[in-house]
Amino acid sequence: MIRVAAVGDVHVGIDSAGSLRPGWDRLGDEADCxxxxxxxxxxxxxxxxxxxxxxxxxxxxxxxxxxxxxDHHAGDPGAVRGMLVDAGVTVLEGEAARVxxxxxxxxxxxxxxxxxxxEGAMATxxxxxxxxxxxxxxxxxxEAIDRALEDLEADVRIVxxxxxxxxxxxxxxxxxIFPFLGSYLLAEPCDRAGVDLIVHGHAHRGRHEGAxxxxxxxxxxxxxxxxxxxxxxxxxxxxxxx
Amino acid sequence: MRExxxxxxxxxxxxxxxxxARDHRVHELELRLSVLxxxxxxxxxxPTAGRQEAVREVLEEACPDRVIDDRTSVxxxxxxxxxxxxx
Lengths: 242, 87
Prior knowledge:
The complex is a heterodimer of chains A (242) and B (87).
Chain A: E1 2-7, H1 21-24, H2 27-30, E2 33-37, H3 46-56, E3 63-66, H4 77-86, E4 90-91, E5 95-101, E6 104-111, E7 117-118, E8 121-122, H5 129-150, E9 156-161, H6 178-181, H7 188-193, E10 197-200, E11 209-211, E12 217-220, H8 223-226, E13 231-235, H9 237-241
Parallel strand pairs in A: 1-2, 2-3, 3-4, 6-9, 9-10, 10-12
Antiparallel strand pairs in A: 1-13, 5-6, 7-8, 11-12
Chain B: H1 9-22, E1 32-36, E2 39-46, H2 49-62, E3 67-74, E4 84-85
């Protein structure tokens, strides 16, 4: 059995010190790994990342994270990343991490992702350079996910995103802003590889459960959606290989 | 903006949304704003009580002549009571 906890959009500011940790105290007993689905800080300041590092200190399980748009706002996502890496967090951007656990091997491919929309209502790489750059940014993130999944062998494979890969977990948000909340490009490599689960945040007014066209479960773990300090997903390897 | 009695409420709601996103005290993009006569209604979930107070401050500074109807709530940090089996 592998148990994975996840939460996104904690938006940690200086005023968050001490607010998250009480809810996370049991994590080491309830899960084998914690995934953080971006928007870890309020405005992308290193001081905010330091507060989060303090909340995570001594949790007793591996922590894997991706950054979100808030973590880019101050213009130095590297500072946020560096602060978390120094605290022992694995921060992924188009890369894979493997964690050997008692229950098996967990593989996580992580990327921020980006927007663009979904079939029938999407931006394309056409026209002004600004529009092409917008869609290209997403496409490049998706290509990195594809490459990282190619080489990833693990008993359980999860893709960790900030932006949404399907519209199904966005319902509840105004449809007009779906193109700013995610892109189908992020789901395509996950379906191709047949991953076990996709986890994302970013859509505070969305819904928790969705699935890709190929049937991969998608879960929106933005804190305002889950209304908890985290959620836990379990994978029974004995059952899935029987 | 504050002193223009003919300001369009629709533009005002959009400008306030921009304020809440860009102001360093708040940086919240997912709060719902509506302008109803003399009231500014703000709804959504914020991470801390401090952030909730900052939302009110920013709106009061931008619209000193309006009533701020704060319907935001602070996120829950309780641990879950069950897990979801994926496979």
